[in-house]
Design brief:
The complex is a heterodimer of chains A (356) and B (339).
Chain A lengths: L1 H4 L8 H20 L3 H27 L6 H18 L5 H26 L4 H21 L1 H4 L5 E2 L24 H24 L2 H11 L1 H6 L4 H27 L1 E2 L1 H4 L2 H14 L4 H28 L4 H6 L5 H15 L3 H12 L1
Antiparallel strand pairs in A: 1-2
Helix pairs in contact in A: 2-3, 3-8, 3-11, 3-13, 3-14, 4-5, 4-11, 5-11, 8-11, 9-11, 13-14, 13-17, 14-17
Chain B lengths: L25 H9 L5 H32 L6 H16 L3 H5 L3 H31 L6 H23 L4 E2 L9 E4 L2 E4 H23 L1 H11 L1 H6 L4 H27 L1 E2 L3 H16 L4 H21 L1 H4 L2 H12 L11
Antiparallel strand pairs in B: 1-4, 2-3
Classes of the chains: A mainly alpha (356), B mainly alpha (339).
Chain lengths: 356, 339
């Protein structure tokens, strides 16, 4: 049964299995293991990022498409739910569904058109065009302030069941009251789990095999009779749809949408870093990478702040370990990992087992 | 069916390459098409502003398109050179502020020239190092190339923050270049005139180098067919490193000009302008300097006119223009090798 659930794509490494189980259990029990808002927020962000990165890996790692428009679709999903909920007086589930459907429609149309337009030519062309389109889109989102709330974004209220003030039952369970925040967390968790398993199913299906064939040798895949353009456009659309769903979940969790959290270029670089460090072409890489990255982002910065204070006498070094400069070290790590271990953490773990 | 092939006369001239002039007419067409929608002085002001901006974009984008044409390397980190160039210039411009505040055009331009030279030297050196360290190991692997140049971009931007501090730096224009000259009722900012002149000089220099010198011949031949140039005994690698460094230096020059135009410097100014340069080289056709020039002017002019006529439309004018051009010519205005 578990094998079927994972679509026959097992971690294939004891250490990796242990890490994955630890992450799964950690995310599953997060509300009961830790108290306070920050750890729960971290856990929810990890869930959403796992799906977001995995859907990007479908493009980058499995099909060999470099896209910079992934955050655009993520943002469309988030804004779809956000605008729908912000524009009604009484937040209802109907509004969420309407917003989500509209967002998904826009996502499919945009992904299809961009794919049709740019995926027929060289990969590099696609990277450039998506970069241009995505940046225009984010400018548009921050300028059309009547609709999107501009730079400030929009806060909105969610249906009563999900709002923090709501409690499901009187008594506490394992020392925690069952409130709306907890219910939202489990909706996000379950949604992300389902989406991740769907992606795992997708890459291990015959369709996924064709995508990998295209990545390895496009010409050969074409010669074998597959219409590579069609497959690439499909991969693009599916990846975009999953990203939009992840965005919708994130919006529900944050009860806020804004250009910085959903459309910003920083999100795109985060995704790139996670995919490469976790391991391209393995869905599990997204899990390990996202968990590590988000934890580091939330807790390593504190550590860097302390180091920066300690080094405050040294001119350049103190600035270099300032918490705001943590992208510097990640960037260096990113370049080094592309050179020296392009297979990422998951690839390395699997290789170790194979070598034994 | 026994048609004999015409035999060429020994002394007959070689058939000339067909000139493709349709794209050349685009810029005048756009400029003239905008005239009926606005008053004449506004039109002059906007056109000069558009030309100035287009020239600056061209300076920054020209290196990128040549590098791509020569080695099929698309440098996503090109924007870093723009930022580094602008920030390096502050080493001259800020301490010598006194010279910039005097009203003598000569002193102003002298200091500016010094700053530009320093910026270009620094970015050329950086470009050389970037090519060695970041790009050389991943020739021919486009996926790694995109990722790694992106990584180089992130690191460079962060390093700028480390070296020059995270706050934005104000960079006021030299005294003699502030304000505007009036042509009838049309106001033309002096700095924009300078930008047009510098851009024109750079374009002319590039054009002459590419078309009238042996190096230029080799570069053009390399863009057309690199292997053949190698087979002739030229080291295309060396040529490429040279072009890369020169392109980086141009980006540095563009960075200084752009920084003075904006009058503030932030570390991510390069990555912002990069989106624009990408659109420009897509429009122009990857690898074509002439196309890049036309593309820059088109983008800047259309953006300026649209910003005046319908500000909301201006937000997407770049993309609309790109799509329109690609629908007309799917590979850009000029395809590889046709300058």
């Amino acid at each position: 049964m578990p094998i079927q659930l994972l679509s026959g794509d097992l971690p294939r490494s004891r250490a990796l299995t242990a890490i994955l189980v630890a992450i799964l259990l950690g995310l599953l029990c997060a509300p009961f293991l830790f108290s306070g808002a920050r750890p729960l927020n971290t856990a929810a962000t990890i869930c959403v990022y796992i799906v977001l990165v995995a859907s990007y890996d479908l493009l980058l790692g499995y099909t060999g498409i470099v896209s910079f428009a992934h955050t655009m679709f993520y943002g469309i999903g988030a804004y779809g739910v956000g605008i729908a909920l912000a524009s009604v007086d009484e937040p209802t589930w109907g509004a969420i569904v309407t917003g989500l459907v509209a967002a998904l429609l826009l996502t499919v149309v945009l992904a299809f058109v961009i794919g049709l337009f740019a995926l027929r030519v060289r990969a590099i062309f696609y990277a450039m065009i998506t970069l241009a389109v995505a940046s225009s889109f984010s400018v548009l989102a921050s300028q059309l302030s009547d609709f999107t709330g501009g730079e400030d974004g929009r806060t909105f209220s969610v249906p009563e069941l999900l709002s923090p003030g709501y409690t499901l039952m009187e008594n506490e369970v394992f020392g925690r009251s069952i409130d709306g925040k907890l219910i939202t967390y489990y909706i996000v968790f379950a949604g992300c789990l389902v989406l991740f398993l769907f992606l795992l199913r997708l890459v291990n299906s015959p369709f996924g095999r064709v995508l990998q064939a295209i990545r390895e040798n496009e010409f050969r895949a074409e010669a074998l009779g597959y219409r590579t353009v069609v497959y690439r456009i499909w991969a693009n659309v599916l990846g975009a749809v999953v990203a939009a769903l992840a965005g919708a979940l994130m919006a529900l969790w944050l009860r806020y949408v804004g250009p910085k959290t959903s459309l910003g270029f920083e999100v795109m670089t985060d995704i790139l870093l996670i995919v490469v460090i976790g391991g391209m072409g393995t869905m599990y890489g997204a899990v390990v990478g996202a968990a590590l990255f988000i934890l580091a982002q939330n807790y390593l910065k504190t550590l860097m702040g302390q180091a920066s204070e300690m080094l405050s006498g040294v001119p350049l070094l103190a600035a270099a370990v300032h918490p705001d400069r943590w992208m510097l070290w990640l960037g260096v790590l990113f370049i080094l990992s592309i050179y020296f271990f392009p297979i990422g953490i998951v690839g390395k773990l699997r290789l170790r087992r194979a070598g034994r | 069916m026994s048609a004999t092939l015409p035999i060429a006369q020994a002394d007959a001239p070689l058939p000339a390459a067909r000139r493709d002039i349709a794209p050349l007419l685009l810029v005048p067409a756009v400029v003239l098409a905008a005239l009926p929608f606005m008053s004449f002085p506004t039109w002059i002001t906007l056109t000069v502003a558009g030309l100035a901006m287009g020239m600056m974009i061209f300076i920054m984008a020209s290196g990128l398109t040549l590098v791509f044409g020569l080695m099929s390397v698309l440098n996503f980190g090109h924007g870093a050179f723009v930022s580094v160039g602008a920030f390096t210039a502050t080493y001259v411009l800020l301490p010598m502020r006194g010279w910039l505040e005097t009203d003598s055009l000569l002193a102003n331009l002298g200091v500016l020239g010094l700053a530009v030279l320093l910026a270009m030297a620094a970015t050329a050196l950086l470009g050389w190092a970037f090519e060695r360290v970041i790009i050389m190991p991943v020739y021919g692997q486009y996926l790694k190339q995109i990722l790694i140049t992106m990584g180089g971009m992130i690191v460079s931007e962060q390093l700028i923050n480390v070296i020059w501090g995270a706050e934005q730096i104000a960079l006021p224009l030299p005294a003699a270049l502030r304000g505007a000259v009036f042509l009838g009722e049309a106001a033309i900012e002096k700095y924009r005139l300078l930008a047009v002149v510098v851009g024109g000089v750079v374009f002319a220099a590039l054009f002459l180098t590419l078309n009238r010198t042996k190096i230029g011949l080799l570069i053009r031949a390399g863009v057309e067919n690199g292997e053949m140039v190698e087979a002739m005994g030229y080291r295309i690698r060396r040529l490429f490193v040279g072009v890369f460094a020169a392109g980086s230096a141009l980006a540095g020059l563009g960075g200084v000009m752009w920084g003075l135009y904006k009058e503030t410097l932030v570390a991510h100014m390069g990555s912002e302008i990069m989106v624009l340069t990408f659109i420009v080289i897509i429009i122009g056709g990857l690898g074509s300097v002439g196309g890049c020039f036309i593309g820059s002017l088109l983008i800047a002019l259309v953006g300026n006119y649209a910003g005046f006529l319908a500000p909301k439309v201006a937000l997407v004018s770049n993309i609309v223009l790109m799509i329109a051009v690609l629908l007309w010519r799917p590979a850009g205005l000029y395809t590889k090798g046709r300058h």
